[in-house]
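To the team - uridine-diphosphate-N-acetylglucosamine complex, inputs and output below.
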Amino acid sequence: MKHLLTVIGARPQIIKAAALSRAIAAGYSDRIAEHILHTGQHYDANMSQVFFDELAVPRPEYNLGVGSGTHGAQTARMTAGIEEVLLARPFDGIILYGDTNSTLAGAIAAAKLHIPIFHIEAGLRSFNMTMPEEVNRIVCDRLSTLLFAPTQTAVDNLRAEGFGTPNVPGRVVLSGDIMYDNSIHFAAVAARRCDIMQRLGLEPEGYLLATVHRAGNTDQPERLAAILEGLVQSIGTTGLPVVLPMHPRTRARIAALPGLAALLETPGMQVTGPLSFLEMTLLEQNARLVMTDSGGVQKEAFFFRRPCVILRPETEWVEIVDHHAGIIADADTGRIVDACRTLIANPPDDYPALFGDGHAAEHILDTLL
Ligand code: UD1
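Output:
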């Protein structure tokens, strides 16, 4: 039996872990024992607990409860807590997801204890070092034993950095995207179990879905203002309402800038709190168009054949843009409205299978064993 420690902490990691835990329960539990550690980076019920309940992620065996803080303080508390767990009993490896501070902490703690690191969603690059996520993913990749790349672009990024040569150990594996596994699995569940469309009074194809949570957008008032203005003007241009589920940080920043709060009162703006994964899945499937600065939401839009306006200066998921299913509009009001208009007038019809075969979790587990 192999004992693996899975580290999760932020909302998207709980979602990604669901795919692997589900696959372990279905076919690998005789060979793999998964032990889950929640750092506590996300702690609000609607940012954390709801995902465990809804996605059937096993209860964490360890909960560090670190909460919020500066990057240094938060990462340090997590690193110390993870190290303590890794020292208390032998583990055959640690599973880390994505690019959050929880990922970074797990990589540092495990690397110093010579515990093999398995990085899921390896090789993504924005080439923008001002993003905390870019720092986290580069460090985690460099320390990893097995790097599970979701796309060919991610494999190419790692090869360009020398992975696979003697000086840069770490084996790169093209596994496909574990988020695609989840979207396939949960799309049907959401359609059966979820009444969010009725609750918000929405019709299929009858609204635009938007999310904004990146530090690079929320923490710069002029960028946040330009994006919100872009959403408001998109309502006017398309005649469709904008549904905006709000991350707690975004809500806090808007509340601190009185001019912005008024924009949320525009007719057609439907602001909600953070939604569950099933609710988001259903809203993504039925939206006319998605506008987001989230990496995960960009991809989910693509999985569900929805065009996407990307509210960032660049994207890690370049294949979405290359296939004309997404347009980079940055935090530029005019570009946001133009992108919206273009994608609605000429919706893409080609959404090829760029993210694997829906069995990334099994490929990952077979490789681990
Ligand atoms: C983190 C990840 C980001 C990911 C996002 C998903 C890092 C560096 N970034 O960003 O890549 O896309 O998670 O949501 O790890 N807060 C609450 N309640 C919570 C959690 C956070 O109110 O349950 C507030 C706090 O004010 C906190 C702020 O949100 O300071 C930001 O949270 P933080 O943990 O720093 O990261 P995210 O911005 O969520």
